[in-house]
Specification:
Number of helices: 2
Radius of gyration: 30 Å
Helix content: under 10%
Strand content: 35-45%
Largest sheet: 8 strands, mixed
Number of domains: 2
Shape: elongated
CATH architecture of the largest domain: Sandwich
Length: 403
């Protein structure tokens, strides 16, 4: 008889506990697409309580969560940017004038053809009261509260942009207050194509970058970068030229010529700052002893950008492979390629010393795809130091067949 009494006590306690459970609205993996919270049973009569395993039949009898129709909700998502860049981290804030009970937050691009959401990027830092949700198979793509008996208020998150272009995106949140939920979204955030992606370097496009942090630094850590690719019809070369330019008295340049010793008749494209604007110049170098002169054939800027955080500027432009005028350089012939920084005074530019001008060592045709990295940091076993103490990696990468 004593044994039967002892066994019935925990059973009775469990039934009592279950009887005091109440349905509350929380966000689970099933909320990722619709942003609708779901009912769960919770009990917080003991430390560390929370979800209670019960038969879903009773929860299914509850009415669907009610979406708030208020025009001026007391909640908002605050972001301080209107463009996102590859692999860059951004601060996202949930701000409110009233407490709320539960939330979910993520970034969305255009929905997939099957109607499912396209979730973008991932969260790097989140509040301690929150947890990561791996929505739709994407790790850390969403954040939700842990489901605690607390009042929630303002929160700050760090979100990391993806390495690829997803087009315009929005940050979307769903918040529960009482028995209703509210869906919020930001204005569209467009994609900034700079810094240029290095995916495809050595396979689909030729790349050069100057590194000081590591022998294979990402674009964000480079001090100079050029990406060159052929247009679809193979009639133009598209050049993206960038580098750190602190003020209007500096520039970055890419040149083409037939003389790597004296730089005779080197044709140079120059990217520089002019106030808040990015400008592109075209110069001809008589030789290494004389100053570059403004070229009679202008280069047309087709895209530009400046990252105010790093002072890294970009110029994008096209050049015809076959000359269209008598002033155009014939780029169908093999030429040396030159990459360098320099100083500038008004419209006049000055060449740096020869050991600060990197050249391709061999003449190249634009149909040859290459990937070069100039590394000026600590010595590495994966690279071979040059006589001037600068390391260079050259990855041979195949040939594009002219069509």
């Amino acid at each position: 008889m004593m044994v039967n009494i002892l066994l019935s006590v925990p059973v009775l306690a469990t039934l009592t506990t279950l009887g005091l459970c109440d349905p509350v609205l929380r966000y689970k993996l099933g909320s990722c697409n619709s942003l609708e919270p779901v009912y769960v049973e919770e009990n917080w009569q003991y430390p560390g309580g929370g979800d209670v395993m019960v038969d879903d039949t009773e929860l299914n009898l509850l009415d669907d969560p009610k979406k708030s129709r208020g025009r001026n909700p007391p909640f908002s998502i605050e972001i301080g940017f209107d463009q996102y860049r590859r692999n860059r981290e951004y601060t996202i804030r949930l701000e409110t004038s009233q407490y709320f009970d539960s939330f979910m937050l993520h970034a969305r691009a255009k929905d997939r053809p099957d109607g499912n959401a396209t979730l973008v990027g991932w969260f790097v830092t989140i509040p301690t009261i929150a947890m990561d949700l791996h929505c739709l198979g994407k790790r850390k793509s969403s954040v939700a509260d842990k489901g605690r008996p607390v009042k929630l208020g303002n929160m700050t998150f760090t979100w990391r942009a993806p390495p690829t272009d997803y087009g315009p995106i929005k940050f979307v949140a769903s918040l529960v207050q009482g028995k209703e939920y509210t869906v919020l979204e930001t204005k569209q955030v467009t994609f900034n194509a700079f810094p240029v992606s290095i995916r495809g370097c050595g396979r689909e496009m030729s790349c050069f970058r100057q590194c000081s942090t590591s022998p294979t630094c990402p674009p964000d850590e480079s001090t100079y970068m050029v990406v060159m690719t052929l247009s679809r019809n193979k009639k133009d070369v598209i050049i993206s030229l960038g580098g750190i330019v602190e003020d209007e008295e500096e520039y970055v340049a890419v040149g083409f010529g037939d003389d790597k010793t004296h730089l005779h008749s080197m044709d140079v494209g120059v990217c520089y700052r002019e106030g808040e604007n990015i400008q592109l110049g075209h110069y001809l170098v008589e030789d290494k002893m004389g100053p570059p002169y403004l070229h009679r054939s202008p280069l047309i800027l087709t895209g530009s950008d400046m990252d105010p955080r790093t002072n890294f500027i970009w110029c994008q432009f096209r050049r015809p492979i076959m000359p269209k005028t008598m002033w155009d350089l014939d780029l169908s012939q093999p030429l040396f390629h030159f990459y360098f920084h320099g100083e500038k005074n008004m419209s006049r530019i000055y060449l740096p010393e020869m050991d600060h001008i990197w050249n391709s060592k061999m003449r190249r045709n634009f149909s040859e795809i290459t990937n070069d990295i100039q590394f000026s940091g600590r010595a590495s076993t994966s690279i071979v130091p040059s006589p001037v103490g600068v390391c260079l990696i050259t990855l041979a990468a195949g040939v594009v067949i002219w069509g």
